[in-house]
Protein 1
Amino acid sequence: MSDSPALSVRNLCVYVREDRTERTVVDGVSFDLAPGEVLALVGESGCGKSKTAEAIMGLVPEAVGRVTADAIELGDLDLAALGERGLQKIRGCEISMVFQEPLTALDPVFSNGYQLATQYRRHRGQSRRQSRNSARDMLRRVGFDDPDRIMRSYPHQLSGGMRQRLIIAMAMACKPRVLVADEPTTALDVTTQAQVLSQMIQMGRDTGTAILLITHDLGIVAQYCDRALVMRQGLMVEDASVKTLFVSPDHAYTATLISAAREMSL
Amino acid sequence: MGGRTDILGKLKSDRAGLAGFLIVTFFFLIALGVWLGWLGQGWSDASGGRWESPGSAHWFGTNILGQDIFQRAVYSVRTAFEIGLVVAVFSTLLGAVLGALAGWYSGSWVDATVMWMKGVLDSIPFYLFVAALAFALHGQPWAMHLAMIATFWTTTGRLVRAEVMKIKSMDYVRSARSIGLHDSLILARHVLPNTSHILLVQATIAFVAAIKTEVILSFLGLGVQDGVSWGLMLAESTQEVLAGHFANFIAASGLLFLLLIGFNLLADALQDALDPRQAAL
Amino acid sequence: MSDGTQQMLLRVSNLTIEYREAESPSGKLEAVRDVSLDIPRGGILALVGESGSGKTSLAHAILQLLPIASGQVLFQGRDLVGLNKAGMRAARRSIQAVFQDPLASLSPRRSIRQTLLEPLDHFAIGTKRGRSDIAAEAIEAVGLEKHLLDRYPHELSGGQRQRVGLARALVCGPDLVVADEPVSSLDVSMQARIVELILELRERLGVAFLFVSHDLSVVRRLADRVAVMYAGQIVESGPASQIFKSPAHPYTRALLRSVPVADPEHEAPIVLEGEPSQPLTPPTGCVFHKRCADALPDCPLHQPVERAISGTEQDHTEHRVRCHLWNS
């Protein structure tokens, strides 16, 4: 593994169109994501963390907002310079995203096996049989005991946690360099959350994928992540390893977030 | 009804919708004038010469019987509104009630009955149905209205049924049930008002459909029996056009076109303004 | 025994709730099986469980929104099943509900005032003119300003709407409020404020709460007693402090330990493998044995019986578990 970062972002700004003016929702965010690292992007609702992720993936439509940056680099790929077609080629392949609501990411008319196998066929050029085998393997790796049953069934027949694990399987099929996960477990039960997060991070370690995990839950940050970026109202307020962050935070805002989280915890 | 002020506000900022609203209001005022006896009263007077050109006595000229085309066109506005309003109001009401009952009691015999009725009505060829009704009612003027009401309610019914099935599981309905309110009260107070966005749009669609249908029926001789309508005028004009007289045709089709455009613009704008999802932003 | 019944505001005994399910071999699905719980006057009982645990069905059944297959629900000593019309009406007035989704729990085209007046009108409380005052009092009791009465739900924030839901529940002066996930869709800071409000209302008005939630951190700050549900059964119940400090049932322990803590040095959350039991084919024996780290040979064969392991029924401090590990 090289030393250069898997993802490098410099001075990313996102302006959202509102009536006739623009509102700055992301104000000059810069960070590096090292290969294999689990980086948390944490903050309260409205701080701009989701928009940051969407901007990196090129998922902010023209009608919604404007994105500017000095650099958005996925290793040696300049994401800012790629047009929509170029981005489509690498999405799902070099850089994948997992969202909060799994149901809308899965197509209800295709079987789970079909959707997962398609990833292998499209991005890894595998044959139909090869892709089905790869899909079966992958399902076992994300913790499904009966992969054949899962492959035959349809998204609506799975529980929320199972759908999310399927989506992670689809996202990781190509061993992407970076996985962006936007509040992937917020809608899940707490035991399912533990399953999904631990599996996601284990998979990341196996494939060498760096994970950008967006969350508002400081417990998740403390127990699953290596480093954390704290965002507040579009600005990056702190960037530190998790150990340092919780022991001696630089910024007063971080300290208030941590003490509020500790108060509410068990 | 909630948030009425924002609806007007939204309409005002939608230019096309505003135009539609103004056009419809203009026509409505004309219809009102005819009802009150101020306008279009001379629609049947055969006082002019045959096929006179437009002039100061007869603004659009006269038809083959010497009747004033302008007067007839104006009177037809009243006919159009009458048909439109009667059919729109009653078909929407019928659709709302039957749809709500079907949706609320979905899966039961009530639902099955309503759906069966809908299936039967939808599968009858419309003009056959009207002809049959007109015959059965011995040419009564209401035959046409009844036929339209009986067939137009089905679309509204289907949409309301689907919406009610969604609303049924909303927590505010659960709250009402948990304090013991009677089903009919819940339907009237909480369920139907929350389908009003559907009802208003369906009503405007029914209005337009009724007018268009009347034109065709009158053209076929199954529609308006006494009085005049654009349909009748268009029917008359088929022969006149062959003789090179276009005034009848232009007057009837022009006004019809204008009213329908106005209504369509208004319906689009209303649909956007009333969408409760947008209201929540 | 009669003393106990008199004291208890709500006593649920051996309650079973079934749904019709064509796909199941018996044609029925048990959402709730043989559940018993008590709530004293002014007590706060939290019903904790994850999706599929049956906690929402249980709450709805107590609100008379779902039919009961077997068992009893005694409210103020009288069985809610089989009450006559007048009795039903009185019970409905004394047991009120607050639901989860603040947006969907208020009728969109009715003003806040209309929403608050509805139960007052329905139960004919006070005089017609006086009801507006009662509504105003209720709105202020939950910390909102009177002028909000003329607004519509979409004009209020999520936290405000949820308070309105509480105000509506309180406006009839109930003895018990059943709250189904009332804070789940709110911001953390707003959650804390609603929790404070509920505690304050209990102090001032003596209202009891049945608080259904999957969020343990909220429950911890709020509840006197906690009942943990899994696959339709109550697997453990007891004073909140006991449940959190010394959980007895393996599921409760797993549940508590899977919540991530804001401290990197803390023990890593444990992962509970497997899926919650499929409702169509409930396992024989204990509902939890397939995922239980401490399963005994007896667990797949026999259903465990509920036992008290500490505390006394008299002062309502019993700690009860349904587990073979505690049966010897």
Protein 2
Amino acid sequence: MSGTGGPAVGTDAGEGPESAARRRMYQLMSLILTCDERVRRGLSAGEFATTYWPATGQEAIAAALGTVLRTDDQLVTTYRGLHDQLAKGVPLGPLVAEILTRRSGVNAGKGGSMHISHPPSGLVLSTGIVGSGLPIATGVALAAQQSGSDQVTAASFGDGATGTGSFHEAVNLAALWRLPVVFVCQNNRFAEMTSTAEAQPVAHVVDRAAAYGIVGEQVDGNDPDAVYGALDEAVARARSGAGPTLLECLTYRLWGHYFGDPMRYMPREELDQARADEPVGRYRARLIVDGVLDEEEAAAIDDATRSQVEQAFVEALAAELPDGHEAFVDVYGTAGA
Amino acid sequence: MAGTDGMPDQPITGSVTKRSMREALNLALAEALAADPSVILIGEDLADPGGGISQVTKGLSTRFGTDRVRDTPISEAAIVGAAMGAAVAGMRPVAEVMIMDFISIALDQLVNHAAKARFMSGGLLNVPLTVRTAVFGGIGSGATHSQTLEAWLAHVPGLKVVVPSTPADAKGLLTTCIFDDDPCVFVENVALYGTSGPVPDGPFRLPLGQADCKRPGTDVTIVTYGRTVRDALAAAEVLAGEQVDVEVVDLRTLVPFDSVAVLESVARTRRVVIAHHATRFAGFGAEVAAQINEELFGELEAPVHRVGAAFAPIGSAPSLEAAVMPSPATIAAAVRSVMGP
């Protein structure tokens, strides 16, 4: 891989991700799971109050995104974005502070958990309106194409977004202009409280790729190696000028639409099965079997992420909320109304 | 000296050429494309040989290439959304929404994303986006192709809303919008594309947030903007024959709003009519009226009077359009009513 500051990992030809990439993906998954659990624990305990859309269960997709994409590649994600944001390199401390709407947050407490933006890590923005990130990602990719850069943009979205007009308009336009964009559908089986099966007339999200004449691929979104392989190809395709890919990653949303969701619409046995199959423990065990990590190294990674996450929460909880006057800062860049 | 079509001259220094508003807009776009490689145009039917439904972009794709003047499918959400994305990635895109009614399809991108990205990112994102759109009212296009909807946009913190009335203003304000770092909605009007006036030849920018007195007067102020400025000036001519000396203040930009210029004029004349082609009910004129009332209550000789389209869809038949839309006659009647018996 070339690029500016991206991870120094890659693939052995035809062999899937090499060991360094797999270790990195496990570290990211451990960090994401630990951080998401910590947010939920704090909310449950009444330690803080905020709105939050849990990402647990979707760690593998983010880990692959954060390992295949270069730092200068761009990612547009959604309100359910903690996993993508951490994987793309948004710094943990300011990210946690933003979720807790502190002045020290990555967006000064103005964005909140739904609207994280950190251009230095290539995390362009996170959108709170389902489907709306796809046209924006298309435009970010247009800027790269127009300026002759080889940057690739990924748009991360859920299965619910595929029902929006924005999905159609954006994928259609990106395909027409052969823009360097990868559309990454994190199919977590539910759009808010409605199952994917109830909301789409096609069998699979990936079936829709044919309508735009682009490559579509469906992978096990709980298998980081599988996502890595498919994403690596899609990114290479985009970077070479061959246009967009629709990548459907099958996963499962383990903690509901929003924190506190009673999840009455989720079949109990299906949820239990999905929790038993959750990707982080599964990948940890596989890396030990494959000799990529031993138990001691895996435990050391988990310990390190726990202490990093705890430290981030200690600092964020001690930080102040923004002053009221900051509500009027950055409404406009140049003299406004 | 009055310009052509009865429009007064701008205080412009340097050489000018008489041009239509269509030509003035084309010139502003051409100069911006020539000056800055980050300027791109995207929208429906912009490229030659069509050159835009109203020929505003005629010749630009031939001169600058179809990668910088990009035709799109009919996809308003993607046009504005992609322009928004390109803007945060460092371009200065000018998106065109062909007819203002179609902006409804792109409002999510404008209202939820472009308008708020700078704020929500704590200042990390810049959104140098311009969205050009045109009101097609008055040519019998019916209820879905005739609306004047700028009040929707003026209501959203983070957007700037610009509505030019003359070719010179159009050139100067559009250039400013393109090089401004905030999202600007630039509202054109099909009824104005063919009107002409002196337009500066060289680089020319007008600041946003500065109203312009299009006709000085002492008895009554008409506060207006865009297409309605011409009707206000026509009404003022008629009223001059009735010994009523009308001042016409052209807002030019609704956001930022030049309340200083409005209040200064109304404090002097002590009578005011606010006129626009947009629906009167909850239109931008209601905001202007409220601010005048808050600041000048007790100094007015008559209640603030508003003229705007009636609260009804715009029918296709000319008789139905005429029944709903304001005109020089309805503006003159409003002025007579605030002048009293």
Protein 3
Amino acid sequence: MQIYLPIAEVSVNAFLLLGLGGMVGILSGMFGVGGGFLMTPLLFFIGIPPAVAVATEANQIVASSFSGVLAHFKRKTVDLKMGTVLLIGGLVGAYLGIQLFNYLKSMGQVDLLVKLSYVVFLGIIGSLMFVESLNAIRRAKKTGTAAKRKKHNWVHNLPFKVKFRTSGLYISAIPPLMVGVFVGVLAAIMGVGGGFVMVPAMIYLLGMPTKVVIGTSLFQIIFVTAFTTMMHATTNFTVDIVLAVLLLVGGVIGAQIGTRIGVKMKAEQLRILLAILVLAVCGKLALDLLLQPSELYSLGAPGGH
Amino acid sequence: MLRLALLFLLAALPLRAEEIVADLSQSSVGISATFDGSDILIFGAVSREAPVPTDSPLQVVVSVAGPSEAVTVRRKDKRVGIWVNNDSALIDDAPSFYSVATTVPLQEALSDGEDLHYKVSIPRAISSVGAQIATGHAQEFTEALIRIRTHNGLYQVHEGAVELMSDTLFRTSIDLPSNLTAGEYTARILITRDQQVVDSFETKLDIQKVGIERWLYNLAHDNAIYYGLMSLFIAIAAGWLASAVFSYFKA
């Protein structure tokens, strides 16, 4: 069934979108990630204009993170204070990101910016995750227990120290703010929640306990992506609600199936699968940039949309 | 002076000897949520008071043009190992959709001069005066624009697609693809003899988003804040619903 998307102004198969939403939903349920980093490139591949894909995906992430955070609130695994600090940084970052996005859009380089960001971040995160989970599998085979140590790094020597009770941390507010800004920029440019950057940063850089990391990052993501959605909707008019709803429905159902599959698999196996997936998407986008495209020319509205 | 005017009138008279009477199968097309392209039938007749001239055959040229707008065409070049947009040209005025159908190949139906005057062939329908001045090589950018839009089904040439019966009745159908933009379209019919235009006829074709498509599009552009808030509300509601259903199944 073909559906004409009112903002993207293209006609697409509704079942294809439901299917994509479902597939990405399964993966996000299995791996506990937002799935924005997979969905946005997939939307490029099926011919949705990048500007619309990025803006609409931000809106879809609001839905999936809101759904996720409710469960974490029930389990009291959200550090509201840390979340708020990350959020302040995130809003500043998203604002800067939108400015950069619009500036490059007027230069005709927004596709390059989005794709390059994807290649760089998916490449880094994918490789790190791959190596880390490979080591974890090896360790598990040897001893069965993973070594754990309390780190005391440069993060603990900065001023403006704040007590984060839920996380059991007493650290400077500067590193979480910086992490927030960085993730905000990514959210605006890439149409992702940024969980795949924020979660490792919270664990390794800030030293937060793993159990509060996901809930807190979801909490921050809701507000940053909501802000991004509003900014895109009011400055670019690129949020396609019909597209968002179709992706949502598929995503919600997929996430439930994915969670059930995820329970049956080992954490290391899941992580290595996710790493391979991330690297595959990264590779596809990198090839697009490296190989000569079949059509060198592209059309655009003069001076932005 | 009067004599000159009379002379002109006399010279002009034979040109009006054949006139077009035509219509479209529908005067408006609605882009609804399930819009998947559409066909427009253009039909008509040549009315004449004198018998059919036999000196040269009658040809019919039918064109449908979408609203014109400026387009930026960008070219990718290899820079530091990756392909990035580099040169660009602004095409002042390019129809968002353009389809031309004829009885015989366009060059046989229309002289170059008449093509220039009536802007019938695709390259003529696109105006790139500004680009010519700015870059000096607008040709390749215009060609790229035509190539891309032809590939997307937005620019079409159907030579021989107009059926002409007894030199009087003609009909053709124009295929409107699903990736159409809304706006006021113009359908034009030219009849020619000996590559010269004998008569021309123009009519409007209104293509608009209808129903929920129109409502959403207008809301997104005129009340962007409400549209954004509505999008967020739908997202939050859907997220809450998903969580509620999920915990219901768990319980």
Protein 4
Amino acid sequence: MMSGLSDPMVPRVARVVRRWYETPYTWTIEIESEPPGTDAAFEAGQFNMLYAFGIGEIPISVSSDPAATRRLQHTIRAVGSVSAALARLQPGEAIGLRGPFGTGWPLESAAGRDVIIVAGGLGLAPLRPAIYRVLAERRRYGKVSVLYGARSPDDILFRRELARWRENRALNVEVTVDHATDAWRGNVGAVTMLISRATFDPTDCIAMVCGPEIMMRYAIAALTEVGLPDDAIYLSMERNMKCAIGFCGHCQFGPTFVCKDGPVFRHDRLRNLMQLEEI
Amino acid sequence: MEGLERIIREHRFFAGLDEGFCQLVCGCAKNVRFEEGQYLFREGDPADWFYLIRHGRVALAVMMPGRGSITFQTVGVGEIAGVSWLVPPYRWTYDAKALELTRAIAMDAGCLRDKCEQDHDLGYEVMKRFVPILVERLQATRLQILDVYGGTS
Amino acid sequence: MSIADRAIVTLEGLQSLFEVLQQRGYRVIGPTRRDAAIVYEDISDIAELPRGWTDEQDGGHYRLKKRDDEALFGYAVGPHSWKRFLSPPVLPLWRAEKRDQGFAVISDNEPQQRFAFVGMRSCELHAVAIQDCVFLDGPYVDSHYRARRVGAFIVAVNCGQAGGTCFCVSMDAGPKIKSGFDLALTEIVTSERHVFLLEVGTEPGAQVLGDIPHEPAQDEDIAQAEAVLARTAASMGRAMDTHDIKELLLGNLEHRRWDEVAKRCLTCGNCTMVCPTCFCSSVEDASDVSGKVAMRSRRWDSCFTMDFSYIHGGSVRSSAKSRYRQWMTHKLATWFDQFGTSGCVGCGRCITWCPVGIDITEEVRAIRSSAAC
């Protein structure tokens, strides 16, 4: 950058160090800023803008542990040209990076309270950093539940980690699928069914919800049903983004810019908006 | 009978039911258990009993030719296996199989239907508890069939 | 000369102003006639100003007409606004060049030449201030806007008449210029004389005025200028009742009026192109034929486009109704939540340049008259 004031639209170059397959169409890439060792600190819930040379740039939540500040993991589902290009990057290849952007999960507000984490599909990826943070300071939190819904057993993200967390008994982990296969012996049914079964104190609890918007609406309805007030529920919204810095206008959701007022919002702020069509 | 009454009153489904109704309901109940893999009921069977799960997990499934048994729902502690006992022709439309050792209160459907018919107040208390379950399940099923997560095509 | 002093300048003096600005290295932009409209372009001489012309504006209607005097600024605003210079419609951001082990990102210098904007109206000054708030006052600063904005010299012009679609009075954005200028002029054209009352707004303005021939203004000059403005204020082409407008619109998001306007709206996006405060943009990626150099540029975008709100699976706002509603509620209501002011300055361009003549003041009136709350 040559000009006197640096341009927040100019990416820095990072490098893919590892990549691995997660579930159909979904890969995690681990990247390191250049020069190596550059601090890449972020808050759980924030996202980066990732640029694939000559193709384009999209927002992807960071899915790794915020305590690991030199390398960042992003879990990407290949649904378009940019995401497919990013998911195809091999170790050693360069990638454009801008960020981190946005608001994070309310880990401080949740301290001293029960925590209920409700994730659907790829929504577990932006929540995983929050789970790591809770585990790192487990005694600061009350009962912690992770309720996860996936399409089918083959689509369960971070399967081994979920099993490990359940075994460690540090968290109450429940996984359910919409469509079972023969071999599946676990829960079958919408993730909302897990909410009424979970144990937590609705008067002293923080819920963090992430997944497809309709799943979040249903989950929030179920949480409200069991007594959580609107200001105890947080969700992560997603909208079209071209800049991530509040200038392009694409991510507007009512009066909010999802890139800078979100992506994590407290539900009382969004309740009225979420009931409206095409807002 | 006293132990059973206590168990019934502790189950989520009968929470808040008054003394008198509890005794009535008790008259239709018994304690049962199923080993892993055992069927609670099968599709087409008469819906003579339904089950309030106290411990364990039950898969509700249908047999699809060429695909075998497909589970569309699991129910666990505090939940109910079987709703078809409520409406004619009182026949099960799916299988229910224990996924693990399962203990339940079995309710004699015919007995309960008769008692509800004789005492409409009891009938209303039972309906008040059943309808929310049906609604919750319907809403959850909607989310399931909308197939919102994407992924395997 | 000091700030708030006033002077009288003749046509020769105005020509001299142009010369002084160019001598001082400014790139002078001002109104000129082209393609049957008055647009903003590079100009160097007062002869290029639309002398003796005026504009006739109404919903979906814009025509230039000859005046019966020789006023240089006897028209309202045209399809251009100053945002095309402060935030160019197409702007290269950076390029990436393939290297052995990846690629490098290179961004170039900003232009060094400063702008002198001649002919900025009160509504336009307000619009620039509104965009300053968007691009300079938030958690991030748009470095491209800033590079063009800082150091720009503004010669503002008080409107001698209101346009057919103007409603700056309703939006408290004019017609009298109050602040944000280096020099402000009011054109006084009578049978006896053709002069300009000049007001100094800043130190750089005072210095420029010092370099051009001028006379001190007399009381009657000031009175004549005030009369011009009073006449303009009284002849606005439109009006908008802005009382509680945010609550009105946000409380009526399901009003049937939105369905009615949607039947007319072509979602062509003209309103967003001509609006001086609309700021939405998109990015474009291109590479050269060899695939070794990839360029990223920023271009104007519009919330009216079909894929503006596209996320996997589809657009959030796919109906014309939802897109029109988004534009109007953002402009008049949620802009308050985001930036503390209205987004509208009452310039009327959206009314004039809408191919079907949708009138934002009429839309507000219709909702207000049959509001649910």
